[in-house]
Amino acid sequence: MSVKAFELVPAVERHLLMGDKARINIECIECCGKHLYVGTNDCFVHHFLLDEVPSPKGKPSYSAQKLLHKYLGLKKPVAELRAASALERLIVLCDGVVFLVDMVTLESVPSAAGGGAKIRGVTTFCVNENPVNGDPFCVEMGVLSSRRRTVQIYMVYEDRVQLVKEVNTPEQPCAVSLDGYFLCLALTTQYVILNYNTGASQDLFPYNSEERRPIVKRISREEFLLAAPGGLGMFANAEGASQRAPVSWSEGVIAAAVCFPYVVALDENFVTIHSMLDQQLKQTLSFRDGHVLQDFEGKVMLASTKAVYVLVPLPLERQIQDLLASHRVEEALVLTEGAQRNIPKDKFQVLHRRILQQAGFIKFGQLQFLEAKEHFRKGQLDVRELISLYPLLLPASSSFTRCHPPLHEFADLNHLAQGDQDKVLRCKKFLISYLGEVRGTDAVNGCREDVDTALLKLYAEQDHDSLLDLVASDNCCVLADSVPWLEKYHKCVCCRVGSPLQGFSPAWGGFQEGMIFMFYSSADLIPLVRLLLLTGVHIFTRRPACKGQPEVDPDQVIAYLGKHSQALLLYLEHLVLERKIQKERFHTHLAVLYLEKVVLLLAESPRDEGRLTRAREKLQAMLRESSLYRVKFLENLLLERATLHGKLEEHDEALRILVHELRDFPSAEAFCVWASSGRDAAYQRRLFHLLLAVYLDGAPPGEARAPHGDGSEMEMAAVDLLNRHGEAFDAVRVLRMLPESWSLQLLRPFLNRAVRASMHASRTAKIALGLARSENVQLLHDRLKERRKPIFVSEKKGCHLCHNTFSEPDVVCLPGGVPVHVHCAAQRVRDSPTKRQLANSSNHT
Amino acid sequence: MPDVSKMKKPDVKLVLLGDMNVGKTSLLHRYMERKFKDTISTVGGAFFLKQWGPYHISIWDTAGREQFHGLGSMYCRGAAAVILTYDVTNWQSLAELEERFLSLTDTANHDCIYALVGNKADLTDPKAHLCQDSGVLPEDRRTECEEERTEPQVLSTCPTPPASPASLSGLLLHKQVAREDAVALYGRILRYKGLDEKSSLPADKMCFETSAKTGYNVDALFETLFDLVLPSILRKRHEDQASPTVDLEDCREGSGKRVRASCC
């Protein structure tokens, strides 16, 4: 629990004071700047010059030089000494008399004008360190008299003292302290606060002053420290309330002083030091024969009966570091924050931040991550300090070096964890969450590359879900570091040139996209795209459509891919065919690319028919499926042109091209099927007739063989067409069109089909006729049955369908002889077409 | 106690009073640190700062020992609420409240709120075993508490025997103070303060039975009080900020300082 907050340093050794005279004791001391005054029991005042001796080791020491000693001539002990430096006077209490001596000569000051610079019958006095009176050349003093129950307020001038106020007290006062108008008094049985200006009195708490020596010590503005029953050090303010919890002393405390943030108390054997911040005992110094303990302008001095010491506070930073070194983080922070008032603001901030950072690392080392994070955050830690603990996380290009002196004692994470893999893992998880939190904040300004790279590496190593999110978002990962790392953890094998396109698992697809994004934010996009040339495009095409990621701008991608037609082609196919993006630009672009490829392959010799066909099929499919491309771009390929004409519904022209110019009969047939798909049978029939007509026109009977060789080829095509799609033709029309010369044998399949179809149609019609007739007969039968009894219609009778009365004699009789309005029946028939027959056969009455 | 270090000026003060060993410190620990742990007899007093919404509430834990009795009125000075604590298994602890502690509250604010709290309810009341803590106490934690319960005052520097013999056997002790007794005392407190019973807070709202050990009713106690002192905070702030009367004292002091500053 202990802290080393103070060091006891001898100031004036025994031999300087009394030599070997055994009976001489120190009674009181006063220190004012470098001047130390010591009052002894033989009525001497000694004057020393006290110098702090700088020592190379930082251990403070003092040297005292005796200037003067003076016998005051009263043969009694010098009870108290107070310096009034502005007046160059020492206020001396000796033998119940207060008088002034010169600070330099120690000569008694003669009373001016007989006014008498003496106050008699004094038991004790105090000086107001916070006087309301603003005159710097007088000192306000509270004096307790031995004979009267009063407190007297005096003004002390250079050569006189002046009584300004006298306040009565209910009991004999025995200790006093003064701040502003407030007198804090120890009376015989209690402490009180007395406002000498208004006379208002405020009881504090009971205390038996005869049993134990009371202590009344002003510690700050309107705040006093009092010895309370049970060995407590109580704080009380001028309102009579306590704003700090008491400190627990021993019962025998004889003197106390405050040296922020510590309360120093002296008893017979020890000096105890408590913190005012947490009321804990922080240090105990053994000190025998302690007699006097006082603080002078922040310097705490201590006297035994024979020698004077200084309690030198260790520098706050050192104390804090000591606390941190023993991992007492909370105490260190309390001490730091408590010292805020005593340190210049900018210096405090630096100190505070550093302490917080150190505290954070201590907590981190103890795996108390919540606290650590809080300290790091408040201490505005450079995240890289933390990252640098983890081996290899910082990019090689990082310029970071750990701060000096170091914030922690760890070499790295392995040192910290001592081989405990679980610890390592927990630390890594912490860093992941911490980096994730600070990533977007200002805290990482200037080191975003380092942070993002470290996070990427951690994600990859820990197989973290957020890896994709990180790389997909705007990030600053350093490529040179990330890629090998990702490869190492099998996150990014496909980055290599030439890896097979098929090798993508869907899970990687998203990540690929990430890679591209990653490079977006770094400058060197083009080299990367080159690297990823073929594989890279999958980044765009295999990317899952969901995830709410910002959409890639396809235009941008296309611009980048422009130089790499294969990749561009794949990308465009992805856009147009898979994503079905309806943009004329993309469609035209893709169509043109297909076209170029076909042209290229056509120009090759020898032709690679397989590739050519595939390329053509693609182009044709594209031309057929898409309706967005700009037709004009594409008119230089006949087959494709035919398709275009088809698009424009210029079927005859299209077929003409297909048949006459290309002589691609299967294509022509396919064209007919394609062009008529989704249309009715008549449309298809029209197209086939058109095609047939084209064939037949191309091969007029008797004409010489056409340049390409063959009317018969056309004829064969026509025959094939008829034989294959016979059912689509109107056989009668076909027979009329066909040349006389064609053999029956040639057309047999067609004729077979035609005859069969015709037979089928005829038989179907007959069956329908028969059925209709039978229904008719049935209805007639019904009707006759109904007519056997009369059906009455009158103005009073209602229609069964609309429930209105009849107004005309014309009615329709439903089966069962139910008369209804004509229009109602018509309505009903319209609603149910199956009743058509019934309506037709119904009769008027 | 890192809270103390912030040294924010508290807006309002709550004071725990009561005889020694009734569990004042344990109540406060339970509320502030959510656990029941060994406490030693409080020396003098201690205080905690609690952030309650935008307000800072200082809660003073006082020493119950006779020795420190005299300090009580100082702690109570300016208090907005006083929690008078007794031990339900100890009739004397209730009587002491009236005899010794009530007079300490003379220094509290005129509108001070009083709460009567019977602690150690777990020793007499099975329902107080149900942990009403906001976080459910895990089973192992509870047994841990049970062990700790080997009477926290064992370490006490206090010479008197513990006020309530511990119920290590798990047997329920005889409840010496019934709720009605507390309610009656509350009425007498109001009379002592010269307050009208009808215009004051009702007894059934201000008498609690708690268990610092199980956390039973502890949060309810503190949070009820915090909510009740809020008007007092607001009024204080209002008085501080928007007082229509000019504070001459303040002015003079201010100008005096200025003169001093300019003269040197």
TrEMBL record, chain A:
One of its GO terms (biological process) is endosomal vesicle fusion. GO terms for cellular component: cytoplasm; membrane. It comes from Fundulus heteroclitus (Killifish). InterPro entries: CNH_dom (IPR001180), Vam6/VPS39/TRAP1 (IPR032914), VPS39/TGF_beta_rcpt-assoc_1 (IPR019452), VPS39/TGFA1_Znf (IPR019453). It holds the Pfam family Vps39_1. This is Transforming growth factor, beta receptor associated protein 1. It comes from the Eukaryota. Residues 23-300 form the CNH domain.
UniProtKB/TrEMBL annotation, chain B:
Its main location: membrane. One of its GO terms (cellular component) is Golgi apparatus. It comes from the Eukaryota. It is found in: Cytoplasmic vesicle membrane; Cytoplasmic vesicle, Phagosome membrane; Golgi apparatus. GO terms for biological process: protein transport. Its cofactor is Mg(2+). Keywords: Cytoplasmic vesicle, Golgi apparatus, GTP-binding, Hydrolase, Lipoprotein, Magnesium, Membrane, Metal-binding, Nucleotide-binding, Prenylation, Protein transport, Transport. Its EC number is 3.6.5.2. Pfam families: Ras. Belongs to the small GTPase superfamily. Rab family. This is Ras-related protein Rab-20. It comes from Fundulus heteroclitus (Killifish). The lineage of its organism: Eukaryota, Metazoa, Chordata, Craniata, Vertebrata.
